[in-house]
Every structure is written in C-alpha cells, then in structure tokens.
C-alpha cells in the first residue's frame, strides 16, 4: 500500500470457549459495563514515549519543504492467496493500516484470518476522536491499536496477527509528522526525492518467529514500535507485510518508486508495479527472506527459498491542496 502527502486548507481454545459461555450468560448490560471498564483501563495506560527520527534523517537529506497542512492520497493493490490479511484506510482522519494473520494457527484448526479481521473491524470503528465531556481525546496509532486489541481479546478471538497503523498528524511544533505503531513484520517505508529515508524494523525473537498479538500467550502491546518523524509534500509511504518486504530488497523498492515518479505513473500504477515486483521475486535466492534464512542455517535451521505471494501493498503520497 502506498500513500502520498498533499497540502490541505484546513492461547487455549477451550479457555476461550468457556469465557464466551460465561460472557453470554452474564447478560448484555454486564457486557456493556465490562467494555466500558476495558476502555477506561486503556485510557489509563500510558502510550510509550515517541521516538523521533527526524533529526537523523535531516542529516542525510536536504531539509524537507514545509507545508501548512498535508493529507494522504491513498491507493492499494491486494494479491490474495490465503486471504488471512486485512487493511483499512481512512483518508479524512489520515489513518492507514495493514495486518497479517499468523498462518501457523491453521495447523491447530484455527481460522488464521480471525484475529487480523477483528483488529481491523475494531480499528475502523475507533478512528473518530473520543469525546469526554467538553474534551476531545486525540486518536493515535498506538491507542487505536490498543483499543482494537482489547476488544478482540475480550471476545476471545482465536488466532494471532502482526500489525502496523500509520497516521498523519501535526507535531507539537505544528509541523506535519507521520506517527506509527508496528508489531511483527507488518511494516512500511518512507521515500523522499528518490531515497529511502525510513524503513520499519521487523520484530522477531529469532528467524521467522515473529512478534504477534493474540488472545493468549502473545507478545505485549507495549512491545510495539511507536515512533514519529516529520514528513513533507511529495513523500511516498509504502505499507505492506511479509509478501512485500520478505521478497523485495530496499534498493529495488526505491528504484521502482523513483522510476514511477520519473515516468509520471499514478499512485495506483506505482502500487501495482511494487506488488508485481514482490510476486516476481518470491522464492528468489536473492530475496531478503531467502538471504536471512541462509544466515540462520549457521544455527542449525533449515534454509527456505519459498515465500508466499499474498500481500497488500498500500501506497500513500503526501500531497498538498
């Protein structure tokens, strides 16, 4: 998925089943009260301190031109395979997200897409700012992911998922900035004037053992990477999962975006080209996943050359109006 910025004027199935049975017998009113309590708890949890990559980026590239306000022009290209992935975009609020269900749960008879779909369903519903009396609480990628996660786990949704949520905000200095919350290998890259200025890091305990969110025995939400950086008009943000970043080298992604801009391709055509490059490279020994697998052989692990084709590529171009 890619987007462009523009200026604008203004763990156990039985435990889960038991929990569901108890919840059904307790009545709807009690369920509503519990949901309110969960949201109150979420509000009390402090969001991890934001890291700011803007200073390190500014040392490598010329200062980004300022715009009074920006918006994201969003397009996507989805190549389905197991259909365990999901995504959502909210152009007005400036939010975009992709999630990837953990395929390993299929071995235990669990729907690998269930948790990913639940996260996106709740995230879509929670994008709008929350009003508490006269105060309107802003929505950030982290607390949006947090609320979606709490609702999915409260419903004992089976399976697990990696996730990334990205949004466009104004920083404390009133400069446009990109904020995000990532966990696992769902990630994104930011490209500016032909150079990749940021690439999210894959989170894993060892090779192919990814951080994930799930109802039982998963990683903690505070393990998510929560960061912000300043952005500029014309920046391109590419979101994707393992089907993209496990198959396409950073230099190749950079080349596709740079050539796309030189040829004047529309954001949709550029997203299609990126997805096509990922499909072509899947299984190639030069692909990042195959190379990383080769390095893990030193620790007695089997080398893998195959990689899934399924993926969602979202392209955001930051533009001004």
From TrEMBL:
Compositionally biased region (Basic and acidic residues): 39-51
Coiled-coil region(s): none
Record keywords, A-Z: Hydrolase, Magnesium, Manganese, Metal-binding, Protein phosphatase
TM ranges: none
GO terms of molecular function: metal ion binding; protein serine/threonine phosphatase activity
InterPro entries linked: PPM-type-like_dom_sf, PPM-type_phosphatase-like_dom, PPTC7
EC number: 3.1.3.16
Domain PPM-type phosphatase: 69-319
Spans annotated as Disordered: 1-51
SMART domains referenced in this protein's UniProt entry, alphabetically: PP2Cc
Cofactor annotation: Mg(2+); Mn(2+)
Biased composition (Acidic residues): 27-38
Catalysed reactions, semicolon-separated: O-phospho-L-threonyl-[protein] + H2O = L-threonyl-[protein] + phosphate; O-phospho-L-seryl-[protein] + H2O = L-seryl-[protein] + phosphate
Similarity-based family: Belongs to the PP2C family.
PANTHER family per the UniProt record, alphabetical: PROTEIN PHOSPHATASE 2C, PROTEIN PHOSPHATASE 2C 23-RELATED
Name the record gives this protein: Protein phosphatase
Organism of origin: Eleusine coracana subsp. coracana
Gene label: ga02078
